[in-house]
Every structure is written in structure tokens, then in C-alpha cells.
Amino acid sequence: MRRKKLGLLLSGVMMLGLLAGCGGKSADSPNPSSSAGTAQETGPKETVKLKFFTGKVETVDLMNNLIQKFNLENPGIEVEQEYQKDASNVIKVKFASGDIPDITTVVEQDYIDQGKYLDLSSEPFWPRVLPAIKELSTDVKSGKQYQVATNVTMAGIFYNKKIFQELGLKEALTWNDFKANLQTVKDKKPDVTPIFIAGRESWTLGHLIEFLAHGIIKQDLGVKSSREAFINNESDKLKFDQENGPIDTFAKRLLELQDAGLINKDALTATYDNQKEAFATGKAAMISQGMWVVADLLKISPDFQNDIGFSPYPSIQDGTKPVVLSADDSRYAITAESKHPEEAKKFLEFLLQPENLKTYSEFLKSPPAFTDVTADWGPLKDQANQALSSGVNIAFTDSPSGFSGDDAGRMVQELLAGQYSTSVDFAKAYKDAWDKAWKATHR
Amino acid sequence: MNLLRKLWNNLHLFMALPAILLFGLFFIYPLAQGIGISLTDSNGMSAPRFVGLQNFIDFFHDARAKKDVYNTLFFAVGSAPLLNIFGFLYALILDRPFKGKGFVRAVVYLPAVISPLIMGYVWYFILQPDRGFLYHLLESLHLGTGGSDWLGNAHSALIVLVFINVWQFVGMTMIIYLAGLQSIPKELYEAGEIDGAGYIKSLWYITIPMVVQSIKINVVTNIIGSLSVFEVIMALTDGGPGYSTESLSIYILRMLYGSFTGYSTAVAMVLFAMIIIPVFIFMRYINKKEFEM
Q1: What sequence ranges are listed for the domain ABC transmembrane type-1 (chain B) (predicted)?
Q2: The domain at A48-151+329-378 falls in which architecture?
Q3: Which residues of A touch B129 (CB under 8 A)?
Q4: Which residues of A touch B151 (CB under 8 A)?
């Protein structure tokens, strides 16, 4: 009996020893592959494979075309595209597991801080970039550029011009006018949703916070210091949990719309596709989106082109101004751990050639960020300029990577589902979630 | 000679070695590593620091985690018994001889073949208010209730999830019960009949004790499956509205994606315990029962 036990113990110890051996091996395993990588670089005429990682669903086909063109022009380099719906989160797993793409559209402040991207400051294309966009592409902390944007995008209220004309409505710049517009639509056209919210997609709700609530902060502090306030979590400037502060006000306004029945009944389960469909077919009078929506709207109904109106977001708080997002879009960054940085730069250069930028801009229906590109980018050209002059221009928010726009959007879902007893509770919960995520990466 | 014989006698120990190794490599080793990470404040990027049991303490103060535990338990307590009861009933009915038996069995089993993810999306389009299939169906029958947003309401969304899960996997449970039913020798029923046992009696004293192996498999797989539910929720509600239908396994993934690697691993450990404990208790109970019978 005792012997048996000893035998078991011995085999147990042996197993542990073997396991330890395995553990050691698996920890070493990345080495052979990386040495293979360097061998590829030095070896003669081996095809270099570049991984392009993107979260931009609307450009997948376009990028495939551009990539095909690049691969043909550049024998020896082969670019592959990988699209992920949840790209800003998936890239984290990629960084952690060593499966690192060479070039990506996903740029987060936390990863810049961690030195995950290559410094592009000395690349030759910068003089061609619009100064405002170059400023937005500049890292607040180091003053360097780790990313480059190809386009300017804008977001605001899209409205149906035909419905507006019919009902004699005008673009609203104050909250009361905005609400009055919605009410008029509701009263006079009961079949039309005054403003359609795509609440199943948490990113569209996250955007509402980013543009409306953060819009107050961004116009108060200006581009540079608001970016610093978000990145460094300066809570005295952000005032997230303050009563009648930006988040509280936002929550109140949204609930006002819900209570008055001015948003769609299925605001919590309607998808982005439902939203586009409803707007393009005249079943919704207004939506909040960015210019990325235009191409799809025209796909749904090509004649809609002349009926699309675009205006800034109304000011949601007394004493503030209306805002319109006007920011860098289609950002590219090369990863610092890329094994083929030279080839990746070559691909980036290709993407930034004027003719390719023109194609891109015309496809996306959004203005180019490069001064030497003239593109016929779409029906909103004049309206966009007008919106920019009637509202304060704001940029996207640099959120902590653990609290993405999706996470914020889920909180807005909770708000719409009635899970906060007051708007201040929502504001406090928002600050807690933001702080928690910020602390997780800043310690 | 003696040594050879000894080796021969202990051959079974060596035969088990590959299995033990694989088990160690793919289960024990990651588990140990997971326990290690769960004791740190790792964020997946900067070097982790040891924080002891802090993550587990945080877990018990985390309102979202509590909600997710509730949702997970609601889903499991809702699904597992229903799956077993309906699976068993279906098996009893479809074990009888009748025309087209194979076809009916296939129809009941079919949903289990399709990925829960796809199933979820299909149901999503059925249930959407104002434009879903169900809405149009109810509308055309003049039963104007299709407009309600089943998935937009936290309580009804959970119930819908349970319903879809049961509907999808009842066939799987049925198949295992059918296999159990078919292994029962007919002589037992004949003997029972001679002793004057009716349908209910023979069900209770013959059928159920004889399918105890199937019960074991079904209960255990249903507990594991429903406590670790993921796909159907992702497809149908994405955990929403808000976090009201989020399960623990979705929470683990989201925390992992966020910057909470250590915490996420700790939650994974809790879920592991939540699954292993009821399975362990059930196995002890049923083995004892089996012995008694």
C-alpha cells in the first residue's frame, strides 16, 4: 500500500518536471519564428507578407482593390487585409499574443503611450497634410506623430430636406428649437420617426456621448487642452459627475426625447442598418451620424442625394454653442514591432499617393486631409462648409482603452432602458467607469 | 525476466501517460497560469504586479459582476431543467413506433446542428419590433401585440434567451435519452407487466433507473453549457440593453479586451468554480443514488 503511494508520488513529480520543461519550451517558442522573419528579410527575393488590420467595415472592399493594385506594382511584397468588427479590442489580444499586424487603422492613446507604434514624424508626407489634421495627429505627450489620417470626417445631424421643406422647418441651433422641430414632425407626420436612434449598435450611442456630452468640454477647453484633459484624466476640467455638468445634461436631454416619444420605439434594438434604411426611405426625419453613412444611404436609394441635409448638433446646455465633429478619419499607424517597417512604409506611401487618396475620398464621400488632392467627394460639400461655420468644430475623444465608445454606448443603453433612477446617477456611474479604466493603464 | 513481468503488469500505467500529459499540458498548466495571473493587476501591456486576492475581493463588490452572476444563473436555472424535462419527454414520445419517426426526430434535432450564433441572428430578425417576422405574422392575424420590443426589455430578453436555448438544444438532449431508452431490455417491461405495473409505475421503476447514465451525461453537459453561455447572447442581445443580459463569460471577454486582464482571469476562475461545484455535487448525489438502486 505504502509502496503504491510512493509510486504515485514519484510519477506525479515526474509529470511536474515534464510540465516545467514544456512550459519553458512554450515560452521560448516565439524565438524561432522571429529569427525566421529576419532570415526572410535578408534572404534574396523572398515575398514579404504585410498584415493590414482594420476595423473599418465600410472600406473593406475598397482596400482590397487598393491592396491588389499595390501587390501588382510591388512584387516581393504581399499585403493581406484582416477586418475585425471589434478591432479596437481585438488588437489588444494581438499585441498581447505577439500576432502583431504591420499596419493598422486602430490607434489608441494607451498603445501610443506603450510605444506600440512607429514614429512617423520624419516621413516626407507631412507638408501635404492640412495643418488642423496634423495637429490632431500629433501625440499630446511626446509631440510626435505616430499616425496619419487620409481624410476629414464630420458628424452632426442629418435631416431630410424634403420633410423640412414640407413642414417649414429650419436647422435648429438651440435645444428648444431642436425639440420643437422634432415635435412638429411627430404631430404633423405620425408615420415618421422624428429622430431615429440605432441603439443596438453601442458605438452609435457612444458617439452621442462623444459628440454631445464631450462636445461641451471640447468647446470650453479648445482642441489642445481638451485633448490633454481627456488623456490625463483631469477630473476638475472634465466634470463628468457634476450635476448639470456635461454628462448629466446629456442624460437629461436624451431622456427628454424618450419621454416625449420623439425617438423610435425600438431605440434599444434597432441596428445601424435599420437606421440607414429608415432615413434613406423617408421613414425618419433625422439621424445623428457621421459622413461615413452617406455612401450607404445612396446605395439604399440613389435619388436621396438631393434630400440629405446636414447641420451641427444643437447646443444641449444654455450658454454653450452648437458643435460639429470635424476630425481626422481613416487613420493609419505602423506598429513598432513590425518585422517589415520599410515595406509597411512603402505601403503607406502608396495609400497616400494623390490618386489613391482621391479614390478613397470619393468612395467614402468625405473630404481629403491632403492639400494636393482634389476629389469630388459628394453631395454634402457645400452644406459641410456651412455647418462648419455655424458650429464649433470638435474632434474625437481620446478615451482610455478599457472604456471604449462601445462601453460608453452600453451605459447609454442602460439609461434608455430606465436602469438609472436619475441622470446624476448616470453621470456618476460614467465617471466611475472612466476612472477605473484610466487607472488600469496608468499606474 | 522479473523486471519484464513487472513492466507488463504495470503497462496500464504507461498507457495512461499520454492522456495524463495532454491533460496536464492543456488543462493543468493553463489553469495554474490562470490562477497566477488572477492574483496580479495585469492589464495585458505593462508588467503585472502581485495583488493577492484583491481581484476576488473586488469581484464581490462589483455590481456589474453581481448582475452577470444573476443573469448566468437565471439562464442556467431556466435552461438546464427545461432541457432535461422536454428532452426526456420528446425521447419517450419519439421512442414509440409510428410512421415518419425518423423525420420527426430529425426535425427536433435539426436546430442543434446550426451554430448558436447564426440561430441568434435568425431569431433577432424574427423578434424585431415593427419589422420582424413575428410582428408581421401577428399583425396579419390581427393580434396587435407584435410591436412590443421583446429584446429591448431586460426581463423579457432573458426569458427569450432561455426559450431559444431550450428550443435549440432539446434535440441534443433527446438523442442521448433515446440512446438510453433503446438500451433497456424489453424483458424488463414484460416482467413488469406480468407483475401488474402500469405505465407510470414502469416509467418510475424501470425506465428512469435504467437511463440514469443518460441523465448523468445530460445534466452535466447542460449545466456546463448553460453556465458558460456565450454565443446566443452575443448574437441576440449583445448582452444588452446595457448589461442586462450579459453573462459571466461575456464579461470575462470584455474585461480581457479592456485593460483588466488580471481581473478578467479572476472572474474566469470564479466561473470555473461555479461550474465545477454543482457538477461535483450532482455527480456525488447521482452516484450514491445509482448505488442504492
Answers
A1: 69-282
A2: 3-Layer(aba) Sandwich (3.40)
A3: 265-266, 269
A4: 268-269
Check whether A20 has a pLDDT greater than 60.
no
Which one-letter DSSP state was computed for residue B49?
-
Amino acid at B64: R
How far A223 CA lies from chain B's nearest CA (Å)?
26
Neighbours of A208 (CB within 10 A): 22
Query: Does A401 contact B at CB distance below 8 Å?
Result: yes
CATH code of domain A153-327+384-442: 3.40.190.10
Q: Which residues contact A111 (CB under 8 A, 6 or more apart)?
A: A91, A95, A117, A401, B45
- Global pTM? 0.82
- Partners of B244 on chain A (C-beta within 8 Å) are 414, 417, 419
Is 70 exceeded by the pLDDT of residue A178? Answer: yes
pLDDT one-digit tens code per residue, B101-115 = 889 989 889 988 888
Domains of chain B: 53-291 (1.10.3720.10)
Quickly state the pLDDT bin for B237 (edges 50, 70, 90).
Answer: confident
Q: How far is CA A145 from CA A109, A110, A122, B45, B251, in A?
A: 12, 15, 9, 21, 34
Answer whether A278 touches B (CB < 8 Å).
Answer: no
Residue B293 binned pLDDT confidence (cut-offs 50, 70, 90): low
pLDDT at B222 over 80: yes
pLDDT at B57: 94
